[in-house]
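Name: glutathione gamma-glutamylcysteinyltransferase
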Amino acid sequence: MLKRLPRNLSKLHLPHNSYARTCVVNRALVYCSVRNVSQTTPVDSEALAKDSTVNVKQHLIRNSDNSELQNTFYQRKLPEQLIKISTPNGKQLFREAMDAGQTEGFFPLTGAFASQSSPSYCGPSSLALVLNALNVDPKKIWKGAWRWYSDEMLQCCSPKEQMQKNGITFDQFACLAKCHCSVVVKRASKITYEEFLEDLKKVTATSDQHMVISFSRKTLGQTGDGHFSPIGGFHPDTNMALVLDTARFKYPSYWCSAKVLYESLMPIDKETGLSRGYFILSYDDLNPPVSLCQSQTATATPPLTKPERTIPSDTPPSACTSAPSINTNTKLNWSALAKVFCQKIPEDMWVEKPQTLKEVVNLVLRNIPREYSNIIGQRVTSSSMATATDTYIDMLFKDTSASPLYPIVHQAIYPSSTSEKPDSHAVFATLFLLGSPRMLYTSLPRDLQKLFDHYRSTVSSMPLVKREVDRISVEIIELTKSFCTCGKPI
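Structure predicted for glutathione gamma-glutamylcysteinyltransferase:
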């Protein structure tokens, strides 16, 4: 049985609305009963009156003897300047935005929405949400027999332990996203409010692109600081953006002034010393990004298992390549490989000053990890499987071995061996050298540069070779774009 209401509660300034009056009094009674206060126990009536949104369950938890739930929270109150989407005003804004055609991305996003699995996983969670909304097949099992992106699956540019503890930075998100989809990166300090507004309008008018913002919660009046979340809509009449907060346990989705949201991108991130920004993500099935995090799995490589293409057991350690094997799942330190392209090879070229093309080939091949050739082999295998015959790889081997660069590469790999049949090591190494970026050779003598350029130009008359060389070239360019910052900002 509840005790009599303490006298000092009579000083409460109760609202005129009868329902609100009842709620305040009931909360006061529950507060007293839980605390087991007497009539003479002082009560902060002013605080109780002001806190008109206090959840009775929260009082019960805060003041109970359950030590497990001490200092825990069930959601936060949304700041007044933000409009919760589920309120009448929030719903009205959504209807008007939908009528204006500025909520096209909302539906695929909400159809794939899931709250982040960890307080620090807002970045991976936002990316997983967008990838699922874009219908990107992860080609990886999630649970059971299902392939689906979840935030804990996205580990590439930062160790899992580090992400669990500190989350990810703006640059790390860009790196992680580039492994899975096409990304346009926009740092806040380099864009205007008008550009941000224009991007909001464009992205929310289509379901083929999505925007993820990296912002400071403090600017919005929320608790915490750095956070990632996707944008679900835009209200053109009021210039308000719909933020689909991935931390559903903390804040719901809400409408926010685009101007305030733009300002929230500006505060300096103490981890990087730079402002944050936003990303525009898309995906093209016909031109998927080169996955730099983990190579694709080659399920079968019949053409490369023929006896005449068996790799000699005495292959020298300096050889760039090795034949891809069945069910290969090669993992490679892409950041370290990028440094080889961006730093190690150019430095060695400058120091050693090779005078012949054979010396150049030797220098490059000794720096390339053997694992990288598996990636090239898997790309070639995928191409041959797409044509469903051995003809593709037979012709590719034949055409590549006809390149004037091939005998030089073969001699570099096998100094004391000659063979009339195309060798897979030499073929893949030749393809790599033909597709490698010109920046590797800028310190070479001009005559060697011209000779190498001539060899590269010969692939235009060999469609299959050109296709594989172009594929390798794109991969290396993406690799250097993503990792050659070596910790520097994008």
